[in-house]
Each structure stands twice: as C-alpha cells, then as structure tokens.
Write a structure and sequence with these properties.
627 residues, alpha/beta, Serine Threonine Protein Phosphatase 5, Tetratricopeptide repeat, 3 domains, 26 helices
Amino acid sequence: MRSLKLLSYMTKYLRLIVTVAIAVSTMSLASSIAYSQATPTPTPAPRTPATQVQRRPAAGFDLADYGVEFHADPRLIVMMVALEAAGFDPVPSGRQPSAFRSQVRKDLETLDPDLRGRLRAFYERNKLPAPATAADQSARYVSLALTLGPPPSLDAPDRSDDLPGGILEVLDFASLLREFYRRSGVDERLISYTRAHQAEGDRLRPPAAELIRSVLTYLHTQPITTSVERVVVKAPASGKKKAASRTEMREHVRRFYIVPDLLAAPGAINFRVIGDDYYAILPERTDPVSSELRRAYLQYVIDPLMLRFNQAIAGRRDQIKQMISEREKTGATVTPDVFIVVSRSLVAAADARYEESRRLEALSRDVRGKIDRAPNEAARAAIVQETRAAISAVQDDAISKLADDYENGALLAFFFADQLKGIESSGFDVANFFVDMVSSFDPVRESKRLTENAEARQRARAAREARLAARRAEVETPVVYSEAATARNAALVKQLTEIEDILRLKDYQNAETRLKGLLTDYPREPRVFFALAQTASLAAADATDENVQAERLNRALGNYRLAVAAASPETDRPLICRAHEAMGRMHAFLDNTGEAAKEFDEAIKICDARGTTYNEAVEGKKRLSQP
C-alpha cells in the first residue's frame, strides 16, 4: 500500500515537472521595480463602507476567522515617537524622511529641552555597539512597548528573570516614556498618529490577506485560534478548614497582529511572541508578501501543533538530543529544547516548500504561453531545455534555504520538507500527518543532510552571486541619457514619492492638486496619470455616498485610460499591466461585466505570468462568472 501511495505521488510530481518542462516565458521586472518605487500601489474602491473597501482574496474570506488582526498599537506609536525625540534616526543617508516622520519631527520641536536631553542620554548610554543596525537599536524598545499597559498609564512589567534580556536592558526607559506622554503633547496627537497607521494597515490588508489565504491553502489547514490553560484556583478558607483548591480550564484567544510602524527602520520586520499574542511589526512601504511575514504566520499556525502533539515529540526526545549533540560537536550553537527544534524545522520546511511550489507554478504558466508562441519544433526543444534548467535552479534555491535553516538549528528541516512533498497535493490537513512524520525520522540520516546537499547548495550560491554581479554590472553600465533628462526624471520620481506619502495620510485633495501641477512640467507622463487614477480610486474608497463614489471611480478610469494611452509598450509594460487590472476591478464593481472581462484579458495578455498582478487578473476574471 505504501509503495502504491509513493508511486501515485511520484506520478503526480513527474507530471508537474513535465507540464512545466513543455512551456515558459520570461519578462524583465526591472521597469516594474523602478516604477513601483515611484508610484503608489492601486487599491480597489468598492461601493461598501470604508471598513470593507479593500480587495479580498476570495469571497467570504475573513482574516479574523484565521486569527489575524490589523492593529495600530498606541503603545508602540508613543514609544517610537519618544525614540525619535531621543535621537533614533533610521533614515538612510541621502534619503528624505517620510511625510509622517517629518510631521512628527515638526511636532517635537517644542519639546522641553531637559526632557529631550534625558531621553537622548538614556538612548546613547544604552546603544548597542557596532555593527548593530538601526533596526537592532530599536528592537529592544519595540519589545518593551508590547509589554507595557495601555496609555496613559503605560505600566511597565515587574522586573524579573522571566523578561527577555533585551527588555531588562531598557526597562527603565518606561518611566521616561510615561513622563514623555504627559509632557510632550503626544497624547493630543495620538488620534491623528493612529489614523495614519490605520491607513497604512488598509494598504497592507489586501496583499496580506492573499498571503494568509495562500499559506493556509498550501497547508490545507485552519489555525488553532484558542488555547487552553490549566489554572489552580483556591477556594476561601472557612473556619478551621484549610483552603481547598481545584483545577479550572481557562480558554485564551490566540491572535496574530499585523502592526504598521511608520517610524521603524526601513526594511526590518520585527516579530514578537508575547503569551498568546503574535506581533508582526511592519515598517512603512513594506511588501507584506515577504518571506518574513510568511514565516511569522507559519510560526503562529505551527506552534499550537507542538502542544497538541507534545507526547509524540517527547517520544523522540532521545533521537533529537542525539542530533543536537552531533551538531554541537561541530561548534554549532543549537537550542537544547527539542520542541523548539521541531517547531523551527517544520516552519523552515513549510516556508521552503511553499516558495518552491509557487515558483514551479509560475514556471508552468510561463511555459504554456511560450510554447503557444513557439514557431517550430526546434524552438520548443529549446524551451524544454531552458525550463529544465529553471526547474533545477528553483530546487537548488529551496535546498540552499533548508541548509541555512539547518545550520541555524532547524535540524529536521530537510526531513519535514521531504514529508511535505508527499502530502501537499493530497488535500488533507497537514496536522493529520504530524504524528506519523515525527515518529519516522532517522537521526543518522538527518545528520548527513548538509553533506548530501552540498553541491546543490553551492550551485544555488553561485547562481545568486552571478545574479548580483549582473545587477551590479547593469547599475554600473553607463546610461545614454543626457544630464538634463536624468535630472528631470529624478525630480519626477522624488515628487511622486512625496505625493505617495501624502496619500498615506489620506490627504487626497492635496495629492490631486500636486499631481495636476506636475502635468504642466510633465505633459503626457503616464506615471502622473496613473497616480491621479490611484488618488481618485483611494478617495472613492473613503466615500460613503454612492454618487460621489461613482464619480470618483469614473474619474479614476479616465486617468487609467490616459496612462495606458501615454505609456510605451516597450518601457512601461508593468504600468500598462497594472492599469488594465485596476480598470477590470473597477468595471466589475460597477457591474460592467463585459468591460471588466476585456480589461482583465488585456492584463492577462500583457502581465508577467509570474507576477501578482497577473494572478489577480486571472482571479478577477474567474469571479465574473461566479453568481
């Protein structure tokens, strides 16, 4: 029976490879990346109230059902504003601060010099030594903020050995923070600061929801959103009788908070677990479809499985400790906690397999389009050869990731990855297989994983270095643009970035005025038309009057059409792709099904099949036929 199951799996896997191997089209993302740095991401504008205007990845998909909440945390906001007053400055050299950071700095100009001096003195005295980054410097204060009580008290936790060492080092900052809250005026500005963070959360919601849905679909599971704790309760003593005690079961809600932080160090996602609460803290402009957020949510899903199946893990304690001992002999540092080893391993394996399977799916889509356009058998043979190399590269990258995690203590990462290959296409909940998985690993086999996969890892590293070298060469290659043209484009990018910051604060009228002013200096510039469409779309999302919403949506459609008309198919392909997909969503919302289908078809035709916008266009067209 087991052989038949293995044969069935291998047949499905080989069929996937063959499917991928007979078709693929590759398009450059360079212009897409450059464009996305200069313009906001389009957001849909449905007719429903503002709390429901964001695009959802599937009908009826409610993030709250899966433990996820978006949270503008006032404790963290106050902490980061106080750090700004203390001299924390994560803005890279040569870059302008964001609109929100600039506003905070302006608000702090009247702060009492003595209080500012004491804040700065504490921060400088407790700075981490080089080569600590700005993200490292703020990490301990972020952890402290999440242990405080709510404003205005901001009560600090009791000093104890149970607190992480990083918090203990800066725990005394809590008293300064309470004084800062009382005397700085931040209490009066907290409402506006919170609204700015909520606007960033609104931007993050659609792609984060799609990520969560995709992860749970891959695992075929639903997260455990409650935990049960045994609590000993003593009954009051009566007369000479001693106080009796009994055990009660108390249920707690487990939450996964996605927390925007507009003053965080750019590009550094902080992840904290405090009791049953998981916090993924995202800096401004973070792409939520990132490996860090994905791994954080996988940790949220997998952690309760460790508790549910603790007896199965404990039954393999000796074998896991044997593996830990073998790694320690090589000089590696590995946690002695076998449950943490298992948890880290399953998270690492799920993350690597998820990414590998998604990349193979993208290859499959590319191949189908390329085969359709192939003029002859020789061209098709070349496509097959090219695709085989691409598949090999994807698999090498997955092995390299697993090896990195293995060296960081995920000693069963390779084992779990192999096991997931066999069950991910079955449609069954991964939790149903956990006991069988953890009971079947061979510690001797697992100790050889790095050696067995050394060649694949080396190939992945070489390919990565080659890609980096190619990018450096591309950057260093002289561009045949005049100095005036280069300066003109740089000025446009800077102004569009500033307008993006204004949009995050929901100042739509100001943004639109500035964009219309840009058309004087940049007539027929597609990026300006696209940003105008974005502004009208966001304004429609916040409108509650249906007539106002419809007017703004039609204005957005007009500007998207102007953007497409002004764009060049050779240099502005990503912009044209996104414009068609956005128009498709708007027409679908306005019940213009025929027009929506046309726009989605255009997007599917022109978008990179490996990209998010392509997938959204495909899903959008599917929804048109749903009742």
